[in-house]
Amino acid sequence: MAYDYDLVVLGVGPAGEKGAAQAAYYGKRVACVEAARDPGGAAVHTGTLPSKTLRETALFLSGFRQRELYGLSVELNAATAVPKLLSRKNAVVELEVARIKWNLERHGVRILRGSAHFVDLHTIELRSGEGATREGTTRRITSETFLVATGSRPHHPPDIPFDDEDVDDSDTILQIDRLPRTMVVVGGGVIGCEYAAMFAAMRVGVTLVEGRPRLLQFLDEEIAERLRGAMHALGVTFLLGRTTKSIRRVEGRGIVTTLDDGAEIDAEKILASSGRSGATAGLGLEALGIEVDKRGTVKVDGDFRTTAPNIYAAGDVIGFPALASTSMEQARVAVCHAFGFTYKQHVARLYPFGIYTIPEVGSIGLSEEAAKEAGHDVVVGRAFYRDNARGKIVGDRDGVIKLVVDRGTRKVLGCHCIGERATELVHIGQAVMLLEGTVDAFIDMVFNYPTLSEMFKYAAYDALGALARP
């Protein structure tokens, strides 16, 4: 049977764009289906780029770095802060949308507007969406292979009143119309911590409620505790090991959050960061025998193939780790397996986490605790920003680079950074680890001076000192 396309990609976020471009690069006939007005997905419109742009804008408008470094008093104009925040965010989004369109166009990938529903394994019904020439019309499109890359959306627990205009999720918080004086962030995951730090930098009184006993349990415990301390100094109040019992509007008090012990917190704004759910509703995957869990997450094998032989899935829609960086790689690998390309057969065994709090956190590999639990005889090397020339220049006194090293093999098991440019610095550790390097690699390297990167050499010296001790 002759199909309309060799590959149809559902969703044009990071996974969809890169998967489509990969197939088209090797000569396949490719189309993308996008329900939204513009491509980019959550990464461009409601997640990665907007939140990071808001972070940088908030740091600038609040004068955070200037007052820390030079002791300057910067007055934040709350009335103009939000329009400036949103205008910068919108400018970055528009530039990235234009880049995605250009990339797909140069690869010969067609973008089809509308929402898709599977009719059978090789056919989707496409309903045209808002802004289409003939809105509400349907047509059928066939393809040899499909890649489901529809992403995710914020999870809405039923006990949180999202219908209240002052109760936001991580998407709607991007449309704030004013800077609140007080805010409660429910959920201390990555998104909750990032927004808590950003609003605290803009002098909003932030209280973060997290049910687990410590912050970001997947992080190295020392790094997580350093982050908690830094955010506390920024003005964030932490209520760890606490859960919410109810959230309701009370006349004269704003939004009142009642905790499990009966304590109440009044705030002007609530940000509920309760995780995300796969955006699979309406696709009709279950009718094809494709397994989808209660959070809408699609089950795939090691090649990112679903239980249907010609349908693959990648990105947030398959769940953890749900990072833009890994989503791109998953889609490339899926397409290579689908068409037998030998170019890229697996996603790298190690991938970094970047947390855009204030300060930033970058992490890859095993934490000190996980390395010990795995049976490694571990030594640790640290280097501090306060001892580094560039660290002194940028005024970061609290940052640190931490290397986790196996005593017997001297191999680097983990690299954890907190401080200015931590999400960039972690890639130096990543390169050594992926090449199966030892801690001695950092000793042999020559670093520009003055740079933050030079701290890797001194963290390595610190680890060597620990290795020399019995």
Describe this structure in words.
This protein has helices spanning 14-25, 41-45, 48-62, 64-70, 78-106, 190-201, 221-234, 324-339, 368-373, 389-394, 422-434, 440-444, 455-468, and strands at residues 5-10, 30-34, 110-113, 115-120, 123-127, 138-148, 152-154, 167-168, 182-186, 205-210, 237-240, 244-250, 254-259, 264-267, 269-272, 276-278, 311-313, 353-355, 361-365, 378-384, 400-406, 412-418. The chain has 470 residues and is of the alpha/beta class. It has three domains: 5-154 and 277-339, 3-Layer(bba) Sandwich (FAD/NAD(P)-binding domain), CATH 3.50.50; 167-274, 3-Layer(bba) Sandwich (FAD/NAD(P)-binding domain); 359-468, 2-Layer Sandwich (Enolase-like, domain 1), CATH 3.30.390.30. The strands form five sheets. Strands 1, 2, 3, 4, 5, 6 and 17 form a seven-stranded mixed beta sheet that branches. The chain has a five-stranded parallel beta sheet with strand order 8-15-9-10-11, with helices on one face. The protein has a five-stranded antiparallel beta sheet with strand order 18-19-22-21-20, sandwiched between helices. β13 and β14 (264-267) form a beta hairpin. α1 runs parallel beside α8 (324-339) and α3 (48-62) runs antiparallel to α5 (78-106). The N and C termini lie far apart (70 Å).
